[in-house]
Amino acid sequence: MRVEVSNLGHAYSRDAWLFQGLTYTFTPGQIYALTGASGSGKSTLMAILAGWTAPAAGRLSMVGVDSIGWVFQNPYGVAKRTAIDHVMFPFVASGMRADEADESASELLRRFNLRDVRDRQFRHLSGGEAQRLMLARAAASSPDLLLVDEPTAQLDRATAHVVNAVLSNVTSSRTIVIVATHDEETRDACDVNLDLAQYSARAFIE
Ligand SMILES: Nc1ncnc2c1ncn2[C@@H]1O[C@H](COP(=O)(O)OP(=O)(O)O)[C@@H](O)[C@H]1O
Ligand SMILES: [Mg+2]
What we know:
Blueprint: E1 2-11, E2 17-26, E3 31-35, H1 42-50, E4 57-63, E5 68-71, H2 83-93, H3 98-111, H4 127-141, E6 145-149, H5 157-167, E7 176-180, H6 184-189, E8 192-195, H7 201-205
Helix pairs in contact: 2-3, 2-4, 3-4, 4-5
């Protein structure tokens, strides 16, 4: 399984290239940090990878990628559902028995340091807990490609730290994980850094 881009570039208006000439292969088993200043095109590249936006130049090829998951900067859950419900749901939806789903979901809550809030409703979770729950839920759905966009952008430093501390736990041998971020600590929690600045129009002039 892999995601390959070759000579990829995007501009929303004529000649205003956000990035150009991006050739890269993403594979499962490690987390990629996609970095670059605000406005450099990180979210745009994620939308291209998700198939929402057609690139203005170059090619995207998905090999064996059938499902895509997202985690956004604002945690989005169901207010009155408990934490464990959120993580059990993907397992149950995939046809797992309730007791097995409970066991798998409980293990994920442990992995993301959420055991203590297992039965708490989403609306009562702190920002850091809610974001870690989104990561646990994404891990439960085990998509082929997981796109995480600025997971700590809405959090204060201390809260961002607890999210960054467990971020690498989304790594899986069956999932390609890409995290767009301008948080250095988030970048450091990833295995590989792809810096969009190297593909900006300015990089070509210099
Ligand atoms: N749908 C769109 N139409 C036109 N311009 C857009 C659109 N989406 C984003 N942009 C612009 O493209 C640039 C890159 O945006 P974005 O990909 O969100 O960057 P980042 O995620 O790195 O902050 C920004 O200047 C933004 O205003
Ligand atoms: Mg963005």
